[in-house]
Amino acid sequence: METAGVVAAARSQAIGDLLRRSAARVPGKTALVWRGRRESFGGLDEAVNRVAHSLADRGVVQGDRVAVFSHNCREFVLLYFALARLGAVSVPINFMLTAEEVAYILGHSGAVGLIAEDALAGEAEAAVKQLGDNGIRLFGWIGLSGQPVAAGWEDVAAWEEHAEASEPAVLIGDDDPVQLMYTSGTESRPKGAIMSHRGLIAQYVSAIVDGRMTAEDIEVHALPLYHCAQLHCFLTPDIYLGATSILLQGPDAATILRTVETERATKLFCPPTVWLSLLRHPDFDNYDLSSLRKGYYGASIMPVEVLHELAERLPVVGLVNFYGQTELAPLATVLAPEDQLTKPGSAGRAALNVETRVVDDDGVPVAPGVIGEIVHRSPHAMLGYWNDPEKTAEAFRDGWFHSGDLGVLDADGYLSVVDRKKDMIKTGGENVASREVEEVLYQHPDVSEAAVVGIPRPHWIEAVTAVVVTRAGTAPSPAAIIAHCKQHLAPFKVPKFVTFTEALPKNPSGKILKRELRSEYATLADQPN
After folding, report:
1. From the CB of residue 377, how many other CB atoms can be counted at a distance below 10 Å?
2. Dihedral angle sign, alpha carbons of residues 435, 439, 444, 446
3. Ordered structural domains, the chain, with CATH
4. Is residue 235 within 8 Å of residue 226, measured between CB atoms?
């Protein structure tokens, strides 16, 4: 190997290195708990190496994209690190997508492999069939529900039996791609954000420092690992630190509460919608949650009323708000525990390795109190969008990453996210931030959850519309909700329409799908006013 190569090898700081270093420090400590199986850091490190060699034997080489289509499971973790150690690129796919949507991601990413959970194999096969002639040559089967391995697939469990347990000898550069994270698809098609080893590790450092994480943490991971929040803000930082992770297949409220109690978990991340589901669980107060010390939220801003309820019912838990987006891996700003009630509703200040500004349409920073677009500079940021130089250039114009979120900084430099640009409601010549109306709705004693959207209406352009989930045992009228809003909001911000529903549509990361609400309730505005 040339001198440059041996120097690069000695200076390596790639995703695969993080697990190896933790295994060297604390080989016997529990790294991962999955379905009752407790696995040490040393054991996890060895299993990753065996899977990596199995993948290499099947032709996976540096730079190849391999898609993983699964709910949370131990295999997901093994594959993430195994692919990283080969210098390959993992492509996690949302398990709620249709075959057509999966086919698009497989084709767009140029995936050479598809590894799917058994219960999702039908969708996976349909997606491959839609692709037609494609480059997929590897099919891995994750047997979560015990179904027999279908013809044409290989059992991922067998890949752990490879005879070679040493780490593959692959030289990986800091800015080599390690993952393609596809965005939620708020536009016509999702975009593939290219994440690098350097970018993710910089983000892990910010999450660890600003999230006050330690090697003594015991964390429950319930939100989907295909999403960057659970994987990159929590699971991999825990492995980096040598902390213990308890992995759940999904965010079932009773299972989360029971697991916190039985594992004496100290740390938990949930989006606001899942925190609400925990608070509303009928047995919430019967579980022993006294071990819990750190609570994190993200995906959307926590309603202030819910913050107060959490502070009352979990008084020893220090809450932290992580705000960001996929393209930033995803952490951008942090609201610390001591600021939760003094700066309620704020997204906090820039994380350790981030600079954040609020700018006007010309990219010029605006004064405190003035709404503008939130932009960032950070090594967290993606390398760009896969095969999309135009959207990459648009997102990184002026040397800053443009988030598409509207925000405002206060005099102390704390950021408040006003809305997504696309969620700002234009009504009667005025702009209404949906989140401002939602905060008022959450103050009503009968409201459990609420989302506010704009519905097309010729007279107003858009009509402010509230979709409300009521608390059990209550039945407020639309007029009562509107009357409540009139007490707290300017007339143009008060909902013109209020409708009730059993549940709000959400993606697996807990984010409310407002585009579905806009579509479902579009005809509400057609009725006589």
Report:
1. 16
2. positive
3. 41-173 (3.40.50.980), 198-421 (3.40.50.12780), 424-526 (3.30.300.30)
4. no
Which residue in 127, 69, 108 sits closest to 192, CA to CA? 108
Tokens of 346: 């704020």
Residue pair 191/384 in contact (Cβ under 8 Å)? The answer is: no
Look up residue 255 and give its amino acid: T
Q: Is the bond preceding residue 330 a cis peptide, omega within 30 degrees?
A: yes
Output the CA–CA distances (angstroms, integers) from residue 335 to 103, 271, 321, 436, in the order listed: 38, 14, 5, 19
- pLDDT per residue as tens, the chain (529 positions): 688 888 888 888 999 999 999 999 999 999 999 999 999 999 999 999 999 999 999 999 999 999 999 999 999 999 999 999 999 999 999 898 889 889 999 999 999 999 999 999 999 999 999 998 788 999 999 999 989 999 999 999 999 999 999 999 999 999 999 999 998 654 457 899 999 999 999 999 999 999 999 999 999 999 999 999 999 999 999 999 999 999 999 999 999 999 999 999 999 999 888 998 999 999 999 999 999 999 999 877 788 888 999 999 999 999 999 999 999 999 999 999 999 989 988 999 999 999 999 999 899 999 999 999 999 999 999 999 999 999 999 999 999 999 988 899 999 999 998 876 667 787 765 677 787 788 889 999 999 999 999 888 765 678 899 999 999 999 999 999 999 999 988 788 899 999 999 999 987 667 788 888 988 998 886 665 4
Alpha carbons within 13 A on the beta-carbon side of 53: 16
Structure tokens at 352: 């350790």
Buried b (16+ CB within 10 A) or exposed e, 447-461: bbbbbbbbbebeebe
pTM value?
0.84
Q: How far apart are CA 65 and CA 281, in angstroms?
A: 41
Residues 23, 389: Cα–Cα separation, whole Å: 39
| Cα–Cα distances in angstroms (integers) from residue 251 to residues 171, 239, 306, 345, 511, in the given order | 37, 21, 19, 24, 13
Q: Tokens in use for 241?
A: 């630190």
Measured distance CA(324)–CA(200) in Å, rounded? 13
Asked if 155 and 141 touch (Cβ cutoff 8 Å), the reply is yes
At 367 the three-state DSSP class reads coil
CA distance readout (Å), 112 to 22, 66, 465: 30, 6, 45
Three-state secondary structure string covering 88-122 = CEEEEECCCCCHHHHHHHHHHHCCCEEEEEHHHHH
> Are residues 93 and 123 in contact, defined by beta-carbon separation less than 8 angstroms?
no
Token duo for residue 359: 């700018």
| Residue 405: burial class (beta carbons within 10 Å; 0-12, 13-18, 19+) | buried
